[in-house]
Specification:
about 15% strand, two-stranded antiparallel ribbon, alpha+beta, about 70 residues, globular
Length: about 70
């Protein structure tokens, strides 16, 4: 399962994943990450640590939201 199954916002541009006609997948260190378009991948590759922080924050927010719903 890719991380795009969990989050719906693209970590480079902030766009919805399907905003550009369908998500584009890229594997980074064994983790499948989805982007709104191919041009976002090189931007991610230039500074993956910056975007991985955003991704972790997004996933944490999704997790907290799910925990609230499960209560």
């Amino acid at each position: 399962r890719g991380l795009g199954d969990v989050y719906k916002r693209q970590i480079v541009s902030g766009s919805d994943l399907d905003e550009m006609g369908g998500a584009v997948s890229y594997e980074h260190n064994g983790t499948l990450i989805q982007f709104c378009c191919k041009p976002c991948i090189p931007k991610f590759q230039k500074n993956p640590d910056k975007y991985l922080v955003i991704l972790r924050e997004e996933l944490e927010a999704v997790k907290k939201e799910k925990e609230k719903k499960d209560m």
